Amino acid sequence: MLKENPLIRERVTRLQTIGGVGEVTALTWVLEVGEVERFGAVRQAVSYCDLCAAQKESGGKESRGPISKKRNKHLQTVLVEAAKLAPHWNPQLAEIHERELRKGNKNRATLAVARKLVAYMLAVEKSKKDFEVTAPYQAA
To answer: Band of the pLDDT at 95, cuts 50, 70, 90?
Structure first.
């Protein structure tokens, strides 16, 4: 029934142009996030998806804790599972995964990929254009 809705079908089809984003991930994003215009920045969307650590501040000192348990469990679970498979389908995400693996463990790498997936999906939704791979950034 959801596939018959033209707006949902259009958004899901557009999101699937991102390598590593399948029908379940795209449909979950569309249904759980709703209107993406409410996010002014990628970090707000990442926070909404609970893919960042809790930040505590006291006496001028900042510290980060573990990922919050107050979350949209369904959206977070789908994004994390997609992030585990996405590097097999998307070379840019594979590069991010490898870079983060060198810095830390598998969980850190998976979360980095999930955050990048959120950034890609947000960009595709806001631009209303299919995903396009741009030329890789070359350091001078």
So the answer is: very high
